[in-house]
Each structure stands twice: as C-alpha cells, then as structure tokens.
Backbone:
C-alpha cells in the first residue's frame, strides 16, 4: 500500500476489510501490490480521482492510474454510480475499470456493461480461485494491456 | 271509428319517437344536463306528434303530446317534464285557435301528474310497474278529458262526448306500452351501469393485487440480491483465511490441524454452492420462460461432451436413441439434461462400465424423455424425496453434491407445465423421466 501523497497505479475500491486483505495478499504474491491504494467507499474513490469533487478537474492522480478495481455494493456512493461518473467524464473514461463483486447478477451485468465497464469479475469463494482471478486481472490489465498515451 | 284510427296513427308516430328518445336517454348516465336532454328529446317527440294531429274542429285538435310529456316527467323528473311541456305549449300557443288554452293546460297537467308520480317512485325507490303505468295514463287522460270543460259551454260537452271514449281507451294503453319499453331500456341501462361498476371494482382490485405482487416481487429480488452479495463475503473470508493459515502456519498446525482447517474451508465452498443453488431456484420461480424449439439431440450431445472427459470415453457406454425436438426454454432445459446426465454418470461411476441410455417418445400432446443408468439406484420408497430441495439419499463421502440438482430439474419441468418422475431399485440402476408439453 502506498501513502496518499504518492500516486497509485491501482485503485481498489472495497469496503470489506477481509476482501481487501485477501486481494492485497493475492496481488503481493504476484508482486503487483507496490502501487495500490485502497479506499472503502465510492465517495472516497471519487475524491481521490477528483480532489475537488463534486467538481471534476484534471488532477495528476489521473495520469498515473492504470486500473480501478471496483466493488459494487459500497457505502455512500455505490459502485455503479462511480462507474457512471467516471465513464461519462472524458478525463476518466479511458481508465480501465474492473468490477469485482460477490455475485453474478443479470441486473448488474447489464447495467455495468451499458455504462462501459471494461470487465466484470465475480470473486470466487475458494481462495485458490480467488488468487488466480486477482493474479490474472493484474497481469492482464497492468502488463499485457496497452493504455492510450497520456491524454492532455 | 275514423277518430279511433286517426288517434292510433298519431300515437304510432309518437310511440316510435318516445322509444327513440327513451333509447337515447337511457344510454346516458343521470345528471342535470341529461335531464335537460331528456326533456328536449321528449319535447321534440311531442312536437313532431303535434304536426300531424287529429282535427276535431278548426283550432281544436288532439295529439299524443300528453303521453310524451307525462312520461318524460314520470321517468326523467321535473326538469325533463317541464322542458317538454314548455316546448309543446310554445308550439301550441303559436298554432293558436280556440283550443290554445285547453291544449296548454293539458300539457302542464300532464307534466304535473308525471312529476308527482316521479317523486312518489323516487321516494319508494321503485320504477313504475305496469299497473301503475296504466293507472297513470288513465289519470293523465281523465284530467285531459275533464279539462275540455274549460272550452266554451256547448263545445266542451260535445268534445268530451266525442273524445272521451277513444282517448281513455287508447292513450292509457299507449302510456303503458311506451312506459314499459322505457322501463326495459332503463333496466338494461341499470344493469349495464352495475356491470360497469363491477368491472371497475374488479379492475381496481386487480390493480391493487398487481401492485402488492410487484412489491413483494421487488422485496424478494432485493432479498436474493442481498443473499448473493452479503452471504458470500464471509464465506470468502472463512475459506481465504483458513487457506492462508494452512499454508503459512503449516508447521505449527500439524497434520490434524491442517485437516481440520480444510474441513472449515471446504464447508465454506459447500455453503457457497448451496447459496448458488438456492438462488438459481429462486431465479427459475421468478423469471419468465423464453421458449423456442430445441434440438434435443444436439443439446444432449453437448452435455455429454461437457461431462465426459476425452480420456474417460471408454469407461462409458452411452446409448442414445433418436430424440424428438421439443419446445421450451433452452437454457433451462439444458440445465435439466445436464443435471440428469451428471447424476447418471455420478451414480454409476463405481461400475466397471457405466451404461447410460437416453430415449425420447412422442406421446401426442406430451413428449417423454427418459434416462437410465446402471448405477447404485435407489429404494422406491424414497422416490418422493428425490426432487426436494437439499434432500440427499447418499452420504457426501460416497457421492458429492448439494441436493439441489434434481430439485432444480423438478422446478424447471414444473414451470414448463410438465412432469418428472423416477423409478429405481437399490443397486439396479435408476430411471429418470420427464415429460414436456409439445407447445
């Protein structure tokens, strides 16, 4: 985990501390945990990306962010709302957002894809599968996937 | 005699008009504007009747306006009665002649009698009976005949002598006839209105029920949403942290400690499967079927391919008959086949060679499918337990499973309006059947 003053590459938006710990362990195991920031609700996530939220101004955090792992059921501002705001805003629309949630609900799948989510993953209950899933997500989005050059 | 015929002819016109105006009036609901409309309609009836009167003398003639006016008042109240009387009187005054006064008086008297009877009926909340109608006609027209004495002396008496008999024999009968027809129309209107009311009540009840249902549906949906989200997180934690404990503190735990921990973590996974099963049960109940024509043969072959690993092919002997196409929800029916084939494979895997036979028969309105295996079978006394949620006939050590597979099969087939049943004997294999309606 990193200090707030540094800029993160991965933003994990997750309110369940156990899930946070499991996710961080899985990332660490695969040496992907160096630049990750954890926030525990949607509002906090938006405030990290746009420090003057609800105003949405360009902020250095934006240029470093390579992946957002987003839970759907979140306190205050829920995941779908965060997704909607980020995908609608031209400053943030390009940031890959992977929904990481407990269940496969048709309603959520339809809604998040409609809003432009990049990927939808259900967190497996079995730890081995969970670790595999997190590793593959990290590998794919941070190593394999290419992002557009910094938007000015 | 000529007078008789003329009066009858005149009444014929009036009766027709009366029926028409009654018909138009009866269709509408009762309020003040309708009263005025009725008055005007009956007034027009009276006017048209007055255009072809029975002439007795110049300026003294008879027509059926008394019938129209009295009925307008009797059936539709003071406003209707007075309006029609006013219309008839205006024309009568315009026509002029020595009968002007008596003619106007007759119109007014007819309206007054009608209003009195109307109020009487309203108080008693009845509609005029046939007897009342006839008596009413007689009263109105006796008044009419008596009013003839307002004519100059010799003319009054002679007029009464001439018209009393035809008027009193025809007009009350005409009143009765037209009155009965209006009665009929009004009762029909009343029935229609009641029907309408009942329909509206029914509709509002249906709407209420629908709202209730929608609400409870929403509540259920919120419930299953929360189940699938909130119940899984703790399971993930239980499984995850016992796994971490097992791998990072293996030394300290020792082999028994490790075994106990894996019991914990396995149960978390099991619980997750149960939740998934329950959620899919709920989903089947909730969602509507999306039916289409299913190529059963292809579907079964796909399931077999999914369930039997390439390297195990020679451990199974699958006999596949020609299977009829069937109409149903492809995703759900595939689940049925998948679960049934999975079951057959599972419970026959201890045999040297698993024998499975899948067949289908067209039975007209229904299509039956059967799948039999040479597995461990079951005792016939448990056949009712097979399709119940979480019921299992075997211990988890022998055969894994959550007890939800066959329950899902049962639920899906039931939702399709079909039937599912099973036969078997211990150690003699099992036969599962389901039948689906053709359409």
Residues:
């Amino acid at each position: 985990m990193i200090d707030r003053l540094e800029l993160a590459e991965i933003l994990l938006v997750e309110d369940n501390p156990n899930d946070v710990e499991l996710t961080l362990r899985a990332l660490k195991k695969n040496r992907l945990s160096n630049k990750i920031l954890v926030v525990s609700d949607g509002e906090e996530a938006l405030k990290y990306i746009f420090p003057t939220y609800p105003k949405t101004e360009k902020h250095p955090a934006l240029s470093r962010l390579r992946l957002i792992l987003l839970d759907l059921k979140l306190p205050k501002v829920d995941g779908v709302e965060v997704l909607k705001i980020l995908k609608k805003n031209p400053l943030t629309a390009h940031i890959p957002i992977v929904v990481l949630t407990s269940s496969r609900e048709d309603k959520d799948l339809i809604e998040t894809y409609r809003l432009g989510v990049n990927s939808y993953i259900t967190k497996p209950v079995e730890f081995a599968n969970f670790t595999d899933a997190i590793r593959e997500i990290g590998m794919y989005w941070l190593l394999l996937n290419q992002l557009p050059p910094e938007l000015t | 005699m000529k007078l008789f015929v003329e009066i009858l002819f005149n009444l014929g016109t009036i009766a027709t008009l009366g029926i028409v105006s009654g018909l138009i009036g009866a269709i509408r609901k009762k309020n003040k504007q309708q009263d005025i409309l009725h008055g005007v309609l009956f007034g027009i009836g009276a006017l048209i009747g007055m255009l072809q009167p029975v002439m007795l003398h110049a300026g003294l003639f008879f027509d059926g306006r008394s019938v129209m006016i009295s009925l307008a008042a009797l059936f539709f109240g003071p406003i209707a009665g007075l309006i029609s009387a006013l219309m008839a009187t205006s024309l009568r005054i315009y026509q002029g002649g020595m009968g002007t006064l008596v003619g106007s008086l007759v119109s007014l008297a007819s309206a007054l009698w009608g209003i009195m009877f109307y109020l009487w009926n309203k108080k008693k909340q009845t509609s005029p009976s046939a007897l009342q109608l006839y008596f009413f006609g007689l009263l109105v027209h006796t008044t009419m005949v008596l009013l003839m004495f307002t004519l100059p002396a010799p003319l009054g008496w002679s007029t009464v002598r001439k018209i009393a008999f035809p008027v009193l024999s025809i007009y009350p009968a005409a009143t009765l006839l037209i009155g009965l027809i209006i009665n009929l129309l009004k009762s029909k209107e009343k029935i229609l209105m009641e029907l309408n009311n009942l329909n509206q009540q029914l509709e509002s009840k249906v709407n209420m029920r629908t709202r209730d249902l929608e609400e409870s549906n929403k509540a259920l949906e919120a419930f299953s949403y929360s189940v699938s989200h909130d119940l899984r997180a703790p399971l993930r934690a239980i499984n995850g942290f016992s796994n971490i404990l097992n791998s990072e503190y293996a030394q300290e735990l020792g082999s028994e400690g490790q075994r106990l921990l894996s019991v914990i973590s396995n149960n978390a996974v099991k619980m997750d499967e149960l939740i998934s099963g329950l959620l899919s049960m709920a989903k089947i109940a909730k969602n509507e079927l999306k039916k289409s024509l299913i190529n059963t043969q292809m579907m079964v072959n796909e399931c077999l391919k999914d369930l039997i690993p390439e390297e195990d092919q020679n451990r199974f002997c699958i006999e596949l008959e020609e299977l009829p196409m069937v109409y149903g929800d492809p995703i759900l029916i595939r689940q049925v086949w998948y679960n049934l084939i999975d079951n057959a494979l599972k419970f026959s895997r201890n045999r040297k060679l698993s024998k499975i036979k899948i067949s289908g028969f067209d039975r007209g309105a229904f299509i039956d499918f059967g799948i039999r295996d040479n597995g461990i079978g079951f005792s016939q006394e448990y056949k009712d337990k097979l399709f119940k949620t979480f019921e299992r006939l075997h211990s988890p050590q022998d055969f894994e499973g959550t007890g939800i597979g066959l329950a899902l099969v049962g639920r899906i087939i039931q939702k399709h309006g079909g039937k599912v049943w099973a036969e078997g004997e211990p150690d003699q294999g099992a036969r599962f059947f389901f039948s689906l309606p053709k359409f």
Q: What stands out?
A: Chain A has one domain: 10-144. The radius of gyration of chain A is 14 Å. The first strand of chain A starts at residue 10 and ends at 13. Residues 10-144 of chain A form a domain with the Rossmann fold fold (CATH 3.40.50.2300).
